[in-house]
Amino acid sequence: SAVISQKPSRDICQRGTSLTIQCQVDSQVTMMFWYRQQPGQSLTLIATANQGSEATYESGFVIDKFPISRPNLTFSTLTVSNMSPEDSSIYLCSVAPGSRGNEQYFGPGTRLTVT
Amino acid sequence: GQSLEQPSEVTAVEGAIVQINCTYQTSGFYGLSWYQQHDGGAPTFLSYNGLDGLEETGRFSSFLSRSDSYGYLLLQELQMKDSASYFCAVTTGGFKTIFGAGTRLFVKA
């Protein structure tokens, strides 16, 4: 397993601004993922961030809007750029210590509200 | 397209057994996982099936039939603390995981 922390836990931001979310893991892991979840809804994968390579974005998510950094095996950041109220959501990072991503461990999430 | 289907809600009484089904249609399949999420909390990993059959972990069991694109999560000896949302998730090629919409389980006394 892995212990994951996220900062900030919540934030209220003005539209047009950007927020960077940090994800810290207590052990080295290759695969890290960023998800978005509306309260009461499913999890939607934004991107996969593996150390040493560019992040892989899912359909509907682009690097200009959600730039990701993965400088080492224990840390990653997700930036939500030029925010609009539609970006209000819970953002979660997860890691997969195994080989295929089938067993993931999630951070506590960042609850973002854009006004 | 890719889709996972699971019931939106299930209600059961304390001490009972409940089964949450999941059918999937995905391009690429490595395995089926289950996650539990309490209100306001993060999803927590429960179980994984890569091969057909039953996996048991304490009060929870999970089953997979790859030929039927079907799996289920079985919760035994239900407790009030089991009230939560349960998500099935398929790991596809490229280590991508697709989550179902979730099943909200209500456990009554």
Helix content of chain A: under 10%
Order of helices and strands of chain B: EEEEEEEEEEE
Number of helices of chain A: 0
C-alpha end-to-end distance of chain A = 36 Å
| Helical proportion of chain B, percent range | under 10%
Quaternary structure type: heterodimer
Overall SS class of chain B:
mainly beta
Shape type of chain B: globular
Class per helix and strand makeup of chain A: mainly beta
General description of the model:
Chain A is an all-beta fold. Helix content of chain A is 0%, strand content 50%. Chain A contains no helices and eleven strands. Chain A is globular and about 40 Å long. The mean pLDDT of chain A is 93. Chain B has no helices and eleven strands. In chain B, strand 4 (31-37) and strand 5 form a beta hairpin. Chain B has strands spanning 3-5, 9-13, 18-25, 31-37, 44-49, 53-57, 60-65, 70-75, 84-91, 97-99, 103-108. Chain B is an all-beta fold and 109 residues long. Helix content of chain B is 0%, strand content 58%. Chain A binds chain B through residues 31, 33, 41-45, 48, 56, 58, 92, 94, 96, 100-109, and chain B through 30-31, 33, 35, 41-45, 48, 50, 87, 91, 94-102.
Layout of helices and strands, plus pairs?
The complex is a heterodimer of chains A (115) and B (109).
Chain A: E1 4-7, E2 10-13, E3 19-25, E4 31-37, E5 43-50, E6 56-57, E7 68-72, E8 75-80, E9 89-96, E10 105-106, E11 110-114
Parallel strand pairs in A: 2-11
Antiparallel strand pairs in A: 1-3, 3-8, 4-5, 4-9, 5-6, 7-8, 9-10, 9-11
Chain B: E1 3-5, E2 9-13, E3 18-25, E4 31-37, E5 44-49, E6 53-57, E7 60-65, E8 70-75, E9 84-91, E10 97-99, E11 103-108
Parallel strand pairs in B: 2-11
Antiparallel strand pairs in B: 1-3, 3-8, 4-5, 4-9, 6-7, 7-8, 9-10, 9-11
